[in-house]
Amino acid sequence: MEKKHLILITNDDGIYALGILKLKEALQDLGEVFVVAPLVEKSAVGHAITLSDPLRVIEVERDGNFFGYAVNGTPADCVKLGGRCILPRKPDIVVSGINQGPNTATNIIYSGTVSAAAEGTIMGIPSIAVSIASFTKPEFDFAAKFTRELAEKVLQKGLPEGTLLNVNVPAVAEDKIKGVVVTKQGKGRYEEAFDKRIDPNNRVYYWLTGKRMILDNGNDIDDLVVMQNKVSITPIHYDLTNYKFIQELKKWDIRLK
Amino acid sequence: MEKKHLILITNDDGIYALGILKLKEALQDLGEVFVVAPLVEKSAVGHAITLSDPLRVIEVERDGNFFGYAVNGTPADCVKLGGRCILPRKPDIVVSGINQGPNTATNIIYSGTVSAAAEGTIMGIPSIAVSIASFTKPEFDFAAKFTRELAEKVLQKGLPEGTLLNVNVPAVAEDKIKGVVVTKQGKGRYEEAFDKRIDPNNRVYYWLTGKRMILDNGNDIDDLVVMQNKVSITPIHYDLTNYKFIQELKKWDIRLK
User: Fold this and answer.
1) Which domains, from first to last, does chain A contain?
2) Distance of CA A14 to the CA centre of its chain
């Protein structure tokens, strides 16, 4: 008999989110699925890891059945701890999501969902991050089904060293989805503003707010593709070197005095 | 009279750290320096930002004199809030550091120091992250002096859009420093292990630990250069697209069913 695939799933919306329930259901027939996810929501934590506090693990039920392991840490913590201490061996794939809200363009650097998949790739495990491009109207069923197909392909083919797939699915019903595009990360970002308020004790505080800005054009940019009701798949890696600028920088001739 | 440069400095070791004091002193004569830094240490927070909690700002003294603004948030929060609400206008440069401990290779994705500089570049401000390659024997004086020279060059020449300089200085006295090298980000990472313990209430908890692994060779890799007692300067950007893999991924021919 063929050895069963071992699948680690996590997210940043927390272990009780709907997206991770749908993801677990969809991947169930691909292998043995372990859920290791933050106990509470950890959105916008970026690639934070927990060094100063002890991590704890609790077993969590949903609908009366064992569902998975909750960790008092970040999505990256969950992948590290899951892969090294909770699962019986290193998983064959890490799938992070399904996140409510898009993870595209510049904003992926703030994303706990994408960072969990990055942690998987750092551990040498093929990894996928999946998000739905809406905070308010999640249509998880198509996204879950699509993720299952893609995960099956990744299990067959693998991924290059250090590279993950960042998937963004439009928030529409399946019959409205117009295709699948391999994309580049866009340059779009939030134009932030702070909402300055006074609390009941007369002290100032600030809320971070912002407007999404689109700064690209073209048919292969992650956030634009999703706006066209197509699924975006971006191959992401963590070699951050700006190779083009290296020659120029050498000409600066920076020396010790 | 020439307009004075406006300089925003921050860190992830917290506003009371020695490194940020040395940095402020060193940059003082380049322009008007504003310190906006986390109230408490925020190491390994990656590119976390604070969305769910209000941010507060307090004025902090050191040695009886006004030193800067402390924020109950992450290094990225400090740059956003500093640049938009605290400084009189957008700063001309962001300098993050001087961090105690190296920020090289894969580990830069966990770094609050580097993420603060990344936040500066996202806001369109030339930015530098500076770290000393030792947790225990900081020799801040040379690093501070070197940063001043580099910051002056960056103020003159600018940096390409979306690109920051990640600087790592060996933890040795100035006369032991052997040169300055423009480098690439290495592939080195931590091989993690978790230290499993039982607390006095008989409950299990875990500490994240790990050993640094060097996975490169060559004369232009950030962590190797620092080990040769040279200053490493890596140009870093946040276009995470793995362009090389795009053609291959298109051949996967992923379709809707």
Assistant:
1) 5-185+217-250 (3.40.1210.10)
2) 12
